[in-house]
Amino acid sequence: MTVAPEERTPAPVPVLDIGGTHVTAALVDPAAGRPLPSTRIRRPLNPHARADDLLDAIGSAAQTLPTGHGPCWGVAIPGPFDYARGIGRFADVGKFESLSGVDVGAGLRERLAGRSEQLRFLNDADAFAIGEHGSGAAAGHDRVIGLTLGTGVGSSFLAAGRPVHTGGLVPPSGHVHRLTVHGRPLEDTVSRRGIRAHYARLSAAAGDQRLPDVHEIAACAAKGDAAAAEAFRYAFDALGRALAPWIDRFGATAVVVGGSMAQSWDLVHPALTTGLAAVDGPDVPVLPARQPEEAPLIGAARWAQGVPDAP
Predict the structure, then answer these.
(1) Structural domains counted in the chain
(2) CA 179 to CA 10: how far, in whole Å?
(3) 155 plus 115 within the same structural domain
(4) Is residue 89 located within the same domain as residue 163?
(5) Are 231 and 187 part of one and the same domain?
(6) Among 17, 24, 22, 15, which residue's Cα sits nearest to residue 116?
(7) Same domain, 146 and 281
(8) How far is CA 210 from CA 78, 204, 215, in A?
(9) What pLDDT tens digit does each residue of the chain (311 aa) get?
(10) Cβ neighbours of residue 148 closer than 8 Å, sequence gap 6 or more
(11) Is 135 within a domain?
(12) 79: domain range?
């Protein structure tokens, strides 16, 4: 019996989520809107490796996916990046600098050896927010801000599920890391390096050979270390103060937070909401991501399927 075209099961969508220290490849079921668990693979990346080595590592992860998927890939990658042309712009950002000026799209298509007709790139924070808007904590919100807290602070301003990067309702390029707080760039305070540096200034760790990483500082705070707790409070209070005017201007009805630092929600949430309130920010819910690991993959798949560009 011939199956009618509308009854055929749509092919899974291949996606890549490229982070500062890892790459995740997966196939996403477009009907269920979920990654197929058996296809998901995560590989480490050295952000300081040569361009060919980085592209080889990303391509190798992509090649592990089973065949039979759709021809268009969704690729989430942090900026600065020319998403329309697929070219890296990673100058003076401390990661992927060997890819600055490199046609990443062409390099990956070569390594995919005929398994890709098109690569659709998008910012990793946008991928996270689109994924959470589809079926996560942002579902049902017409205007929402997504934050990813990791090495730095990523952000996405979504209107009707589409990222907004221009206009007076959002920060420059739609990214809060370009803002300032306390007279300094926001990422000097709200970042892995910022929290570690502040903890060092407040504690005996300043003289240590090895400064604790952020997850260790969070563990110290949970054990009653006042300096560790203050390092987190200061960082996320500052984020709230910087973000508050833009929540109001954009008309967001929710802020959804993901990323590795969001695992310390009991430290992040109260400080962030206090910072919002300190400058008479709007009273909107600040929510943890419902699917923090899957959201960027889901968002990348939706982008590959044709989620339109910003209005």
Answers:
(1) 2
(2) 42
(3) no
(4) no
(5) yes
(6) 15
(7) yes
(8) 28, 11, 14
(9) 454 555 567 899 999 999 888 999 999 999 888 999 899 999 999 999 999 999 999 999 999 999 999 999 999 999 899 999 999 999 877 789 999 999 999 999 999 988 998 999 999 999 999 999 988 999 999 999 999 998 889 999 999 999 999 999 999 999 998 898 888 899 899 999 999 999 999 987 655 567 899 999 999 999 999 999 999 999 999 999 999 999 999 999 999 999 999 999 999 999 999 999 998 767 899 999 999 999 999 999 999 998 654 44
(10) 124, 125, 128, 154, 155, 257, 258, 259
(11) no
(12) 5-127+294-304
User: pTM for the complete prediction?
Assistant: 0.91
Three-state SS for 292?
A: coil
β-pairing verdict for 13-18 and 22-29: antiparallel
Residue 251 belongs to some domain of the structure: yes
Q: What CATH number is given to the structural domain containing 111?
A: 3.30.420.40
**In terms of domains, do 150 and 116 share one?**
no
Locate tokens 């070569």: which residue? 110
Same domain, 215 and 113: no
Residue 311 lies in a domain: no
| Residue 109 in tokens | 């298509």
Same-domain pairing of 94 and 183: no
- The structure tokens listed for 218 are 């969070």
**Residues 146 and 246 occupy one common structural domain:** yes
108's enclosing H/E stretch is helix 104-112
Q: Answer yes or no: is 132 within a domain.
A: no
DSSP 206-265: GG-SS---HHHHHHHHHTT-HHHHHHHHHHHHHHHHHHHHHHHHHT-SEEEEESGGGGGH
Measured distance CA(252)–CA(176) in Å, rounded: 14
Q: Which helix (H) or strand (E) holds 155?
A: strand 153-159
